[in-house]
Amino acid sequence: MSGLTAAFLLKDAGLAVTVLEGSPRLGGKLAVSEVGGIAVDSGAEALLARRPEGTGLIARLGLSGQLEVPGTTSSGIWSRGVIRALPRRQFMGVPGDFDDLAATRILSPEGLARAREEPDLPGADPGADESVTVRVGDRFGPEVVDRLVEPLLGGVYAGRCEDLSFEATLAPLAQAARGRASLTEAVASMLPPPADARRNGQSAPQPVFTTLADGLGSLPPALAAAADAVVRTGAMVREMARTPAGWRLTVGSAHAPEQLEADAVILAVPAIPASRLLAEVAPAAAAALGEIKYASMAIVTLAYPDAAFGEAITGSGFLVPAVDGRAVKAVTFSTVKWPHLRGREPGVQVIRCSVGRLGEDAVLQRDDAELAALAAADLAAATGVTGQPADVRVTRWGGGLPQYSVGHLDRVARIRAGVATEPGLAVCGAAYDGVGIPACIATARLAAERVLSYLGTLDDIRS
């Protein structure tokens, strides 16, 4: 999405653009295929509706009429053998209302009592970046991290709270916490008013997520068509070098290399290949890129007949704390969350299971059949579903999620400073300012603006 968005913006500015895609297909972590007769996403399946970058780009493509909103956003946590409702007044698991938290029974009495101490603790000095475990755990106790924050962040990054940066992964909370003594107060300041306040005239919050009727996997082809660029798949860039006129890219195998000339280059690739390509060109940026780790995961999509569930499914899905030792970390009831899917194959429920966290390589080394069986077993234990799924799809995303570990913001600043020393060079993607689609689009816009600024200067020189 980052590379295609950059191509679209540059082409829209009248430039000749070539997209070099190393894999056989476009789209990165957006793809769609059928399970149980229903076309559903095998990668990202929703985007934040409240950030304008995603919905704005969709509008520019003329696809706003295809946007769908969830039928329900009520989700839970499968904790200690029971699916419990998520607290309503929290931010990424950090509580803003202790009575609301108590009602969920997610925490033990001891864990809840410890969490309630947070507003009375001495104010924390933000100081240097710390891990989520240190910053949140020191304030609320370990149970809040293990049973609330980790499942939510694990669903986004497939990472570990002891590694993840508080400042980078909980950035809105970090900002709200500045000048406040309590994280509870900071969370409360970020939340919409309670339901009773809305009944007194305040508007209800808008949906947090949205998707496209044909799946987010339908967005890359539409974007590529609108970009009207030269698109080459299976075109792996192995080297890049500065030339007097711009850049030279070496594409293809060592046995049959091809060289392309360009005025400017945007690297919309993960941190590890970006580090290799920049090793000679921008060594400081390459070194910082090389510090970013990646987690692998898999999406196991299962289709069941309605009759396999003893009771009607409610809620959009549930998360699973890592401390409970389950293979599955998150489950989405796709045909419940997205009602527009139900009419496409009546009587079929499609369930999406996420498997894999940082360091869980052994789980992902199992073959597809074993991985699907693990997911189905966890689903049965949580929901009571009976029988075998009627259809299964296993999609592996090896090295798919960058880890925003402690010091990430400084790392990104060093990358951008190193790239800035090279005119006509920019980077974008999920490794920088967020892994969601709107965040990736925002990095593409920054990269395109940098290139346009350089080429405008270059045009002035040439004229």
Topology at a glance:
Layout (H helix, E strand, L loop, with lengths): L1 H11 L5 E3 L11 E4 L2 E4 L5 E2 L3 H9 L6 E2 L6 E5 L2 E4 L4 E2 L2 E2 L2 H7 L4 H8 L15 H9 L1 H16 L8 H4 L1 H7 L5 H8 L4 H5 L9 E4 L6 H9 L2 E3 L4 E7 L2 E6 L6 E5 L2 E3 L3 H8 L4 H7 L4 E12 L11 E3 L8 E6 H4 L10 E8 L5 H4 L3 H16 L7 E12 L5 H13 L4 E3 L9 H26 L1
Parallel strand pairs: 1-11, 6-17, 15-21
Antiparallel strand pairs: 2-3, 4-10, 5-10, 6-7, 8-9, 12-13, 13-14, 16-19, 16-20, 17-18, 18-19
Overall pLDDT metric:
93
Distance between the termini: 34 Å
Largest sheet: 7 strands, mixed
Supply the helix-strand structural class.
alpha+beta
Number of domains: 3
* Strand composition percent: 15-25%
Order of strands, main sheet, comes to 7-6-17-18-19-16-20
Give descriptors for this structure.
22% strand, Polyamine Oxidase, Chain A, domain 2, 37% helix, 463 residues, FAD/NAD(P)-binding domain
Characterise the protein shown here:
This protein has 463 residues and is an alpha+beta fold. The chain folds into three domains: 2-23 and 217-292 and 405-462, FAD/NAD(P)-binding domain (3-Layer(bba) Sandwich); 88-199, protoporphyrinogen ix oxidase, domain 3; 294-402, Polyamine Oxidase, Chain A, domain 2. It is built from 18 helices and 21 strands. A seven-stranded mixed sheet has the order 7-6-17-18-19-16-20. It has a three-stranded antiparallel sheet with strand order 4-10-5, covered by helices on one side. The protein has a three-stranded antiparallel sheet with strand order 12-13-14, covered by helices on one side.
